[in-house]
Amino acid sequence: MSLVTMNINGHEVKAENREPILKSIRAMGIKVPTLCHMDGLEPYGVCRMCVVQVKHGKRTKLVTSCNFPAAEGLEIQTDTEEVLQHRRMMAELLLARSPEVKKVQEIAASLGITKSRFKVAETSDCILCGLCVRVCDEIVGASALGFIGRGKDRVVGTPWYVNTDSCIACGACTYVCPTGAMQMETLTKERWRRELSGKERICRYARMGLISNKVCPNNFECATCEVDQQLFDEFGTHPILALKPGLHQHPKQVGHFSLIEDRSYFQGHTWAKTSKEHTRVGVDDFAQKVIGGISRVAFRAEPGDVVHRGDPALNVSNNGHRATMLFPISGKIIHINPALEDDPSLVNEDCYDRGWLYTMKPTNSYEDKSTLINPDEADQWTQDESDHLFSILTDSKSAALSDGGELLHNFSRNLEKKDWERITNSFFSGGELS
Amino acid sequence: MSVTPGKNVDEMKYESGGANGYRMYLMLCGGTGCVSAGSYEIKNALEHELEKYNLSNEVSVVMTGCNGFCANGPIMVVQPDGIFYQFLSVKDVPHLVEEHMLKGRPVEKLMFTPPDEKSVVPKMSDIGFFKKQRLLALRNRGLIDPEKIEEYIARDGYKALAKVLTEMKPEEVIQEMIASGLRGRGGGGFPTGVKWKTCREAPGEPKYVVCNADEGDPGAYMDRSIIEGDPHSVLEGMAIAAYAVGSSNGYVYIRHEYPLALERLEKAIADAREYGLLGKNIFDQGFDFDINIHCGAGAFVCGESTALMASMEGRPGEPRAKYIHTVEHGLWDKPTNLNNVETYANVPLIVQRGVKWFTSIGTGDVSENPWGGSKGTKVFSLVGKVRNTGLVEVPMGITLREIIFDIGGGIPNGKKFKAVQTGGPSGGVIPEDLLDLPVDFDQLTRVGSMMGSGGMIVMDEDDCMVDIARYFIDFLVGESCGKCLPGREGLTQISRMLNDICDGQAQEGVLELLEETCNTVTSCSLCALGGSAPNPVLSTLRYFRDEYEAHVREKRCPAGLCKNLITYSIDPDKCNGCMLCARECPQNAIDGEKKKPHKINTDLCIKCGICKDVCNRDAVIVK
Ligand SMILES: Cc1cc2nc3c(=O)[nH]c(=O)nc-3n(C[C@H](O)[C@H](O)[C@H](O)COP(=O)(O)O)c2cc1C
Ligand code: SF4
Ligand code: SF4
Ligand code: FES
């Protein structure tokens, strides 16, 4: 990333090229009102409250700072009379839509507006900031919410108004909603209370994959539940926001295999993803493709166990071929992924997200860090491993490559035992045996 | 059959209609307007009659694209003499065929008579509506059967593509487009060549070439008409663009409400593929390009570039708030060249006839700067209070007066011209004293309106300017996506204020608040829909502020249109007590004895205006 120099309200600042200018503005302690912005979500740019004036070359224009990219030589003015005028007008418009909403009143008051000159009719508590829709899509990964209708009839709802099964009642939407308008979590829980019985009443945190399978003893009254309290305390925020299970990092392709940049990789083709408190681990795309259609998995550790880097983590099998995947880090097991026991093929479908194996509390993160392959080195490493694999497969008599030299889908089924062992030893043993 | 450069294109001319030796061609309009007025029935009747007189080998009936003079359809032009017939019906056909086609005596009763004149104008080229037009984008209008690729080829079609593929480098094509000064006909007026250049230079593969045929403006049908009348001109333009930017994938985004256009487009693509003019290795030059159709079912806002691409990707058709250009990050995040239908239709002509010829038409000087003027022509859809409504293509720089009075034939019913709105629903309203404004991108913007995609609505003294602004804003509120706050809440409040003004409910100060709101919506909206939506309000406030003030202060509608602000009464001096109005009034609100002046009971009156319509003596007063 390269740095650029900009000027904000007369002061020179440096910023990462193309990073939204709001970041630099806020870093200077300048207040800019925002309603649809949240760190960690893609900028959305719809409330338009964050307008500022920028001058680039000869042209001066108004832009939204939450998504305007930093560039060399920008001159930014955050509080010109014109900017303030527009912000005040927007506050008035908002106040006419949502007069009862505290957050709206506050923002308006901060701009000196206490009353709207507009007629108040058809009010709504929802300001259509889209935080709920985006958190559910980008962070939770459930995509249970969407916008319906257009123009002034736009509302938040479930896609096509259909009662959705994709909602896991995590409550992230309610948690991020600035106005208290969002009720999806409540609706889903009400439905669960009506429709689910006995063992079907799975705790929402288990559905999120944050704890092992557990049946809710509390009639889904999360607010009175210990587990809920513990998790909130542990993370200091909504647990799902801390772990971001569905956060869409786009994998990038290195030859035949994909990598994700926010992970560190272990020689034995497992990955580790670290957030503030916890680390998640799983197998990488190389392993998933080499092993092929996984029909069974067996976890080698349980919550509470303390394991070391290189210890066996998971046995997998595909059509009689077996392999053992190893822990990429040392630490204490917090949770295992309950979804894998029902559906081991998740590892094939989505090895970097829904097919995760464990969440752990690292015990030796310093040493882990120095041994793991970091994202910068991962490209080269994957390339080398890929070349190595191809040379083995070209040698072998089994049908693993197509006439054009491409990997066949699920090729490991066709491998002779000898070749299979050579491969597991070369790639999944963490480097110790080869 | 495949076409190799130059040679075969010429040869094909002889295979197609032109040299088949018919004595006479009946060019019957097959545009949507005329088709719905019955042109296919007329075609059958014509063929039947010709058969009867054994003329089928001498006279050929050809279905053409839209002629633009839709209000007078079904229309037919007899070639080679150029005789123009209008308002045809099946029952006219036997007489027409016997007289004109058999006996050589054109039928006057089916010809055009200019308003206020007595004698007919037999030839199409002498009719005012057509005389001042200059057909570039519509060059094949009424001359070819759009469903026959051979006829397009016979009129030099696909020659430009052959030329660029065999003689020009992509960079040269781009240079030519920049030098021609061609600017986007879809609304923004962005120089086409500059866009192509950016697209060519943008990193990322594959690149896409997309044609915007969404055309969501109510009442506008320029693009539909081009696709219906001359689909290959658009395909050829797209292929040239693809060669220039380095793309092999094209899409046409067309609204599904255009079934005839869709059908002709599909046929044109299939034919072009068969002729090797789309597909692999076109003209044996190693250039691959194919076009697919994407049907949009969206709102007006789907015509906006980012919304259009979102909709093509299967996401909701909403604009995105990002400071990156679709020409660099467009469809599936790849460099994408988006142009309007009419823009593409101009391209082959420029390649063929050259920059010098093209820049001789229009305004300004583009030799240094592609923004320096407006070159070529523009197609407008002329509607509202003009005598000749329809599609017209005129050179840039023509005055509004020439379009409305010479081509449009002026205002009907002896009324007075009041204003003209250009640029579609978010264009501005232009008053009478600017009638001599030369029409081009920059002049229209300067007076608070815009070129837009080419809507042109003429208004007379009976139109209330506040009501007009209200009408367009209400349309835009409904068709916007509702994503950004100024666009949604701002337009909603503007609409409320305008409705209040029209209803006589508005308070003092409303005009200032209206202006303030418009300014924020213009400056802060996420996309150009919001950015231009206040134009109808701001321009009417600018030129007709007194009319607004009359509504607010005096609770009076000077045009006599806003129902809550007017009363109907009867002028006792003019009324002769014929009782016509009393009988027609749906409310029985009119009293009076025979031969004595009548009176309207204003408590009962619903201001429907029927009494005014039926009165023979102009005795009903609206105030
Ligand atoms: C609300 C809105 C609607 C639009 N509708 C159309 C349309 O129907 N057809 C069109 O060609 N361009 C439309 N545009 C303009 C396109 O965004 C785009 O600028 C154009 O297609 C580019 O082609 P051009 O450079 O050839 O004009 C619209 C723009 C906005 C903001
Ligand atoms: S509670 Fe349901 S709708 Fe809300 S974020 Fe969680 S999954 Fe999405
Ligand atoms: S429900 Fe809340 S978070 Fe969702 S759009 Fe409305 S105000 Fe924003
Ligand atoms: S915070 Fe920038 S537009 Fe909402």
SSE map:
The complex is a heterodimer of chains A (434) and B (623).
Chain A: E1 3-8, E2 11-16, H1 21-27, E3 51-56, E4 59-64, E5 75-77, H2 81-97, H3 102-110, H4 131-140, E6 146-148, E7 155-157, H5 172-176, H6 184-195, H7 204-207, H8 226-235, H9 239-243, E8 252-254, E9 257-259, E10 264-266, E11 270-274, E12 279-283, H10 285-291, E13 296-299, E14 306-307, E15 312-318, E16 321-326, E17 331-336, H11 339-342, H12 346-349, E18 358-362, H13 365-371, H14 375-395, H15 417-427
Parallel strand pairs in A: 1-5
Antiparallel strand pairs in A: 1-2, 3-4, 3-5, 6-7, 8-9, 10-11, 11-12, 12-18, 13-15, 14-17, 15-16, 17-18
Chain B: H1 7-15, E1 24-29, H2 32-36, H3 39-52, E2 59-64, E3 76-79, E4 83-85, H4 93-102, H5 128-131, H6 149-154, H7 159-167, H8 170-180, H9 192-201, E5 208-213, H10 222-229, H11 231-245, E6 249-255, H12 259-274, E7 279-282, E8 287-296, H13 305-312, E9 336-340, H14 341-353, H15 355-359, E10 362-364, E11 373-375, E12 377-384, E13 390-395, H16 400-407, E14 417-422, E15 429-431, H17 441-446, E16 455-460, H18 465-479, H19 485-503, H20 510-524, H21 528-532, H22 535-543, H23 545-553, E17 568-570, H24 580-584, E18 590-591, E19 599-600, H25 610-614, E20 620-622
Parallel strand pairs in B: 1-2, 5-6, 5-9, 6-8, 12-16
Antiparallel strand pairs in B: 1-3, 3-4, 7-8, 10-11, 12-13, 14-15, 14-16, 17-20, 18-19
Helix pairs in contact in B: 3-4, 7-11, 7-14, 8-9, 8-11, 10-11, 10-12, 11-14, 18-19, 19-20, 20-22
The structure holds flavin mononucleotide, iron/sulfur cluster (2 copies) and FE2/S2 (inorganic) cluster.
